[in-house]
């Protein structure tokens, strides 16, 4: 009975849906996290009677065919790249992006990664790095004699050295944006890498070409809405239960058929 296999694909799809929702909820407090959603599509159909088939010599035809689907599958889990809430931290190396841009990060293998997580630190050499120790790109080093650091909305990094009354420019933060942000590949550590689907990175200074400006002393929170996620979770659970009932119903029908005398 095909209903068994069709319902099993529905259960599998909703199981994947619950996994996506659980990951969103788990990352509600992850800086710069962008929520995902599961998207589905129906599978191939068996054409029993094709629409438009001729039914008589006079040319009459069937207005609507008879076709049976074979279930559903999860086709993608795109990220929703909307702006998350911005919270104040008052740390001088915490930077939030108010716009579409991404910070650029240099990976050990030479590749460039991209992140919305602006919780930066200083390495022992004074270089500005991510919380996992990857240097930003282009690299900026703050001397050990600096008493404070200032980051302007357009990304200019300045430091007050010793007892100087005027700041010294240390470097310029740059941001990257993509035609298709949802096409970026997640690699963990709050990092994304470019793919053929995302298109090449378009690099510019903040507050230019739609990248957005910077807010020093703030961090962007995850764009996860707990109420929405719980509602989606309940809906996924109910869909899973209904598919399970279809399997139970199909099993009872098969049992009744086998008991016929």
From TrEMBL:
Positions of the UniProt region annotated as Disordered: 115-135
Keyword DNA repair recorded: no
Annotated Gene Ontology cellular component terms: bacterial-type flagellum basal body, distal rod
Domain Flagellar hook protein FlgE/F/G-like D1 per the UniProt entry, residue ranges: 96-159
Predominant location category: other
A Pfam family that the UniProt record links to this protein: Flg_bb_rod
Residue span, Flagellar basal-body/hook protein C-terminal domain: 215-260
GO terms (BP aspect): bacterial-type flagellum-dependent swarming motility
Alphabetical list of SUPFAM superfamilies matching this protein: Flagellar hook protein flgE
Location in the cell: Bacterial flagellum basal body
InterPro entries membership: Flag_bb_rod_N, Flagellar_basal_body_rod_CS, Flagellar_FlgE/F/G, Flg_bb/hook_C_dom, FlgE/F/G-like, FlgG_G_neg, LlgE_F_G-like_D1
Membrane is among the record's keywords: no
UniProt subunit comment: The basal body constitutes a major portion of the flagellar organelle and consists of four rings (L,P,S, and M) mounted on a central rod. The rod consists of about 26 subunits of FlgG in the distal portion, and FlgB, FlgC and FlgF are thought to build up the proximal portion of the rod with about 6 subunits each.
Protein known as: Flagellar basal-body rod protein FlgG
Native species: Devosia ginsengisoli
Lineage, uppermost ranks: Bacteria, Pseudomonadati, Pseudomonadota, Alphaproteobacteria, Hyphomicrobiales
Gene that this polypeptide is encoded by: flgG
